[in-house]
Amino acid sequence: MHGPKLKTIEGIVMAADSTRSFSPLEKFGQNFLEKLIGIEVPHKLLERVTFVDTPGIIENRKQQERGYPFNDVCQWFIDRADLIFVVFDPTKLDVGLELEMLFRQLKGRESQIRIILNKADSLATQELMRVYGALFWSLAPLINVTEPPRVYVSSFWPLDYEPDTHRELFLKEEISLLEDLNQVIENRLENKIAFIRQHAIRVRIHALLVDRYLQTYKDKMTFFSDGELVFKDIVEDPDKFYIFKTILAKTNVSKFDLPNREAYKDFFGINPINSFKLLAQQCSYMGGCFLEKIERAITHELPELLGSIGLGKKPSVLSCDTTGCGETPKNRYKKH
After folding, report:
1. Beta pairing partners, 113
2. How far is CA 118 from CA 85, 86, 123, 173, in A?
């Protein structure tokens, strides 16, 4: 990160400093903070961006050996990132459980991912082509999108390239990466607002689905019914009760935005159905309805905010807290 002079800061100090944004990292424990290091560098680029370098993926290492919850820490930084570089060494293209878990955490953020194939000047032309193809082959099952992430191929270090390699190509790739990074920095506020709107759409759909599950549950319950069995029947086969089809029919929701049905088995394992109120019951004369506020933000407020940026105005910066970045609660019904 930027600083007036080259300086190293211990993680414990960073977390304790209220002027910085790292205090929430204390929840990951002292073992993690002891491994966290901040470096201040007087570089102009760092006035506009902060880089976070995570530990490398070692597939034969167990989570416990790191001494802290690696995936939870990664998720904290993923939730706050504008751009995510996944760096590969041409000699280490194996895909294991840890990398699969990491890409699961990146689901929904494919537009923010960039792939870097580093140390490319260590390979001959034919070998480089083989490695490039192998990289795509390995990543294909992990990134389930029609438009694959941009892949940058070069040797990203200050030393000169190895002789008899594709110097012109590597240099162009480095320049393209810096242009990409600069574009993301320039559009950071617009991207953040767009992401918040995308998150609001998901929250709205989730609220409508939970409301539909709850309404169906109430409709099926009788005086003599076993509530647990009734709801188990609903959550096991929501299509039998037209849960998802009803949402599509009655609201302007795209079928491509609907979440996985299986996810709601886990969700209701963590959150009992009786802990929710119907959306219609969550309206007040003074405060209005929760769902109406979200819909107003999606259709009017956030688009107007984007428009104000285009006109050169400077709205207040929106933080990750607005998007609802949070921890995943433990499912007390799921077998581990």
Report:
1. 84
2. 11, 10, 11, 11
* DSSP letter string, 134-199: HHHHHHTTT---SSPPEEEES--SSSPPPTTS-HHHHHHHHHHHHHHHHHHHHTHHHHHHHHHHHH
**44: Cβ–Cβ under 8 A, 6 or more apart, which residues?**
none
Q: Distance between alpha carbon 39 and the CA centroid of its chain, in Å?
A: 25
In sequence order, what are the residues at sequence separation of 6 or more whose Cβ sits closer than 8 angstroms to the Cβ of residue 75? 105
Kindly give the interhelix angle for 188-220 and 302-310, rounded to the nearest 10 degrees. 170
Single pTM value for the model: 0.66
Please report where in the chains the tokens 């007390």 appear, as a residue.
Answer: 332
Residue positions counted in the chain: 336
pLDDT tens for the chain, 336 residues: list them: 999 999 999 999 999 988 888 999 999 999 999 999 999 999 998 998 999 999 888 766 665 578 888 889 999 999 889 899 999 988 887 777 888 888 888 887 888 899 999 999 998 888 989 998 888 888 888 877 677 788 999 999 888 888 888 889 999 999 999 999 999 888 888 888 888 898 899 899 999 999 999 999 999 998 888 988 999 999 999 999 999 998 888 777 888 888 888 889 989 999 999 999 999 888 888 778 888 899 999 999 999 988 888 666 554 444 444 334 444 444 433 444
Angle at CA of residue 209, ends 203 and 215, nearest 5°? 135
Q: Residue 245: helix, strand or coil by DSSP?
A: helix
Sign of CA dihedral 30, 66, 97, 118: positive
CA distance 269 to 6: 50
Tokens at 78, concatenated = 């993923």
The number of beta carbons lying within 10 Å of the beta carbon of residue 217 is 21
